[in-house]
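User: I'm curious whether this sequence folds into something compact or stays loose and floppy. Could you predict its structure so I can see for myself?
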Amino acid sequence: MIIGIDIGSTTTKAVSIESGRLVGKIKTRASDAVTSATGSFGKMIIENEIKMGDIQGIMITGAGAANIKNDIFGIPTVRIGEIRAIGIGGVFLAGRDHIVIANIGTGTAIIEAGPEGIFHLGGSGVGGGTILGLAKKLLPITDFNGIMELAETGNLNQVDLLLEDIMEADISFLNKESTASNFGKMLDTAGSGDIALGIVNLVYQVIGMLSVFAAKSRNISRVVVTGNGSKNLIGRKILSIITGMYGISFEYPQDAEYTTAVGAGLSWQAGEK
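Assistant: Here's the prediction. I'll summarize afterward.
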């Protein structure tokens, strides 16, 4: 059995891989990389009743992996680059051998994974961290679930400048309800729900458009969405609108939020140790 651990900037995820199958997964939060890694490992073996002797090795990746200098609890511990881990995990969870991945975490990385290798196409500092940071200053709430609940009540017409605000007809393939400028209207009557929706819309439109450009540049018609941001239902609705305009579909594999940890774990059997 191999344990894969993704030590992120806000959340650490761990998975157990046995015979090429995902058999366990957990998520933790801690203030530093060492506590995150050891805590997630301990939680994994306790909750899944894993015997220490059954663990061949630990593969670590993510922002905090560089801070782990030694083996964890005496078990061979190896680092793998985060981009490579996302690519390996994305291909495994998507069940296809050539994909473009939008990995939405605190920021967003866009990756191509296929028979010729795994390539970092680019990305953006826009992601879940952007939502939390803007909400901290613009809203009376900073809890992520609370922000999403507010956004459910929002109306983009209150904050975003739409094409219908500046022209009477559709333009090209864009209809009159398309965004002309995020936060370009910002009416005095805009409430917290409107602002919350405007923030989420801004983030997912940026991610969606970057993903469209990446997919089209590789002649791929689908983007695999992974990371914590893959679970956001409002974000999924926004991406579905982009699909309707640009013909690039977005798909969300099961366990997509664990993609990086899965890729780390699978890399052991691929000989990257």
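Summary: The chain has a mean pLDDT of 92. The radius of gyration is 20 Å.
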